[in-house]
Amino acid sequence: MIAVITGDIINSQHADTEVWITKLKNLLDNWGSAPQVWEIYRGDEFQFKCNIDDVFWHFLAIKSIIKSQENLDVRMAIGIGEESFSSEKITESNGTAYVNSGRLLNDLKSDGHTVAIKTSNDSVDRDLNILLKWSSKDFDNWTMATSEIIHEMIMNQDITQEDLARKFAISQSSVSQRLKRANYELIVETNQYFRKKISEL
C-alpha cells in the first residue's frame, strides 16, 4: 500500500506564484524526484506519493510551508491504497490510492473542509476523518509565524527551541509560546495515533 496526496492551493490567484511554488517544489524534492514521485500541474494543483507511515507528517509539512505565505492555504485529499500501475509521471500512475485521493479532492472542494482521508476501511476512515476535522480547526488558523515554527519542527525534529530562536531572531520564550499555541505536543501524539490506525489496514 501507498499514500497519495492530491491537493490544490487556496487563494493562489491572490499570491506571488513564484514564491509559494518554489517553496513547495523544494519541499517535495526532499522526498523524491519529479515527475515520478510528485508533480505540480494546472497551475496550483499537485500530487505526491509516499509511504503510508509518513503521510500525516508530510501533510503537515505541506500545510505549514503553504500557511507560512500570506493569505494562502491548501486543500489536501489523502488516499491510501494500492498502486496497480506506476508510470514515469505520477499523474499517469493508477491504482486505488490514486482513485481514492483524486475523487476525495473533488468532495473536499464542495464540502468546505481542507483535509480528508479515504482508505479501503470505512471504520478507519470514520475515525481519522473526525480527528482531521477537529485538528484542522487548529491547522487552518495557524498564523504565518506559527506555521514557520511548526514547519521547522516537522522537518528537523532534533532542532531545539534555542536553535529556532536564533533562526527567527526571537526569544526562546516566544518560540515556546508559539509551540504551545499550536498544540505541538498534541500534533506529535496525533501523528502517532494516525500511524497506528493506518497500520491496522
From TrEMBL:
Pfam families: SatD (PF16264)
InterPro entries for the chain: Lambda_DNA-bd_dom_sf (IPR010982), SatD (IPR032580)
Organism name: Chryseobacterium rhizosphaerae
Gene Ontology terms for molecular function: DNA binding
Designated name of the protein: Exo-beta-1,3-glucanase (GH17 family)
TM region(s), chain numbering: none
